[in-house]
Amino acid sequence: MRVKAVKMEIINHGIEHSQYFQGCGTSFSVFNICYTGAGSNAKEAYEDAVEQCYQSEIDSKSLDRILPTKPKGIRVRDKVPAKFQKEELNEIYWYVSIRLKLQEII
């Protein structure tokens, strides 16, 4: 079964410790699937989520049309503070999710 993305939503969760991040889902929404990326800043986390989208079974042309290359509110300057990045056991990341509404390709 081939599917394409017809609608999307970007959620910028911000900074969270990996053990306490609640995640993101699609319950009570119009979306079918969700991908969450993590990184040291918002842009890196968004790019991680986008990469996960492209590694899935979703039609890549539909993702090209729907996913912005520079989404509003996703910036490099929104980042995990340096004091948390220097720690040896760093488990604090910036999280961004992409929710997609999918449609079967006939």
Q: What does this molecule look like?
A:
With 106 residues, this protein is α+β, with helices and mostly antiparallel strands. The protein has one domain (3-104). 23% of the residues lie in helices and 33% in strands. A 3-stranded antiparallel beta sheet has the order 1-3-2. The protein is elongated. The mean pLDDT is 93.
Q: What's the shape?
A: elongated
Strand proportion, as a percent range, falls in 25-35%
- Count, helices: 3
Order of helices and strands: EEHHHE
Rounded mean pLDDT score: 93
Low-confidence stretches: none
Oligomer: single chain
Distance between termini? 9 Å
Brief sketch in words of this structure:
The chain is of the alpha+beta class and 106 residues long. It contains three helices and three strands, in the order ββαααβ.
Helices and strands, with pairings:
Layout: E1 3-17, E2 33-39, H1 42-54, H2 60-66, H3 82-85, E3 92-104
Antiparallel strand pairs: 1-3, 2-3
Task: For the structure shown, list the relevant keywords.
3 helices; alpha+beta; 106 residues
